[in-house]
């Protein structure tokens, strides 16, 4: 298979595991408050601005991947992890992997397609007009890479890498195995971490 064909197949796979947004509607151009790229700089000081766009999108109805039987969940987890890899290689970085963001199209018995939802915190790393340092930390604490839970990372001094999202996928899998049995939640959180304070993760 040619390299061009492999790239085309990878892009198709990456796109098919994202939610479709047939009626995306922009409701605000730019949030009034622009944040400076450096966490130490003051708003209004010189330096590159990071602007956020507020958007409401009507997307297709999907179901949680965690509600499926275990075999389907594992298959869907691999589909989404692979699609995420292809997106990252092409400059599209999700950066907020969590159990609630793993969804699927189709029913249990049908051929289904797992979907990685919630791309609002993602970035296009190849966008030349994007002011992006790679230092902003986003995510759901129980699923974040340990490197991103340090004070240094929270201070914006650690670049977010592919392996951080991959580690988040592993934590999602661990959480699902500990809390779900064949699509039914048996524990709200894994046993042994009930007293974990996510405001002080380490």
Summarize the structure in words.
By secondary structure, the protein is an alpha+beta fold. Helices cover 28% and strands 15% of the residues. α1 crosses α2 and α2 packs antiparallel against α4. The longest helix is centred in the middle third of the chain and has 20 residues. The radius of gyration is 18 Å and the shape is globular. About 11% of the residues have low confidence.
Please describe the topology of this protein.
Layout: H1 3-16, E1 23-26, E2 35-36, E3 49-50, E4 55-58, E5 63-64, H2 70-89, E6 92-93, E7 102-105, E8 113-116, E9 123-124, H3 151-154, H4 162-179, E10 180-181, E11 184-185
Antiparallel strand pairs: 1-4, 2-3, 5-7, 6-9, 7-8, 10-11
Helix pairs in contact: 1-2, 2-4
| Principal-axes shape call | globular
**Can you count the helices?**
4
Portion in strands: 5-15%
Mean pLDDT: 74
First CA to last CA: what distance?
Answer: 47 Å
Give the proportion of residues in helices.
25-40%
Q: How would you characterize the largest beta sheet?
A: 3 strands, antiparallel
| DSSP E strands, number | 11
Structural class: alpha+beta
| H-E string | HEEEEEHEEEEHHEE
**Biggest β-sheet: strands ordered side by side in the sheet:** 5-7-8
Low-confidence stretches: 23-45
The whole-angstrom Rg is 18 Å
List keywords for this structure.
202 residues; alpha+beta; 3-stranded antiparallel β-sheet; two-stranded antiparallel sheet; 28% helix; 15% strand
Short structural description:
By secondary structure, this protein is of the alpha+beta class. The protein contains four helices and eleven strands, in the order H-E-E-E-E-E-H-E-E-E-E-H-H-E-E.
């Amino acid at each position: 298979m040619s390299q061009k064909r492999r790239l085309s197949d990878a892009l198709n796979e990456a796109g098919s595991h994202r939610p479709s947004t047939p009626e995306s509607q922009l409701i605000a151009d730019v949030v009034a408050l622009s944040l400076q790229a450096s966490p130490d700089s003051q708003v209004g000081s010189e330096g590159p601005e990071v602007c956020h766009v507020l958007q409401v999108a009507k997307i297709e109805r999907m179901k949680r991947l965690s509600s499926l039987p275990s075999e389907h969940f594992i298959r869907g987890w691999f589909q989404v992890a692979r699609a995420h890899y292809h997106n990252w290689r092409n400059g599209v970085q999700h950066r907020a992997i969590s159990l609630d963001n793993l969804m699927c199209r189709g029913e249990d018995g049908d051929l289904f397609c797992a979907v990685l939802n919630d791309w609002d915190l993602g970035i296009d790393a190849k966008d030349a007009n994007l002011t992006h340092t790679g230092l902003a930390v986003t995510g759901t604490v129980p699923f974040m890479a340990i490197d991103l839970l340090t004070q240094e990372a929270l201070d914006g001094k650690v670049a977010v890498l592919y392996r951080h999202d991959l580690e988040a996928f592993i934590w999602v899998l661990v959480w699902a195995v500990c809390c779900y049995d064949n699509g039914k939640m048996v524990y709200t959180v894994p046993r042994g971490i009930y007293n974990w304070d996510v405001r002080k993760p380490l």
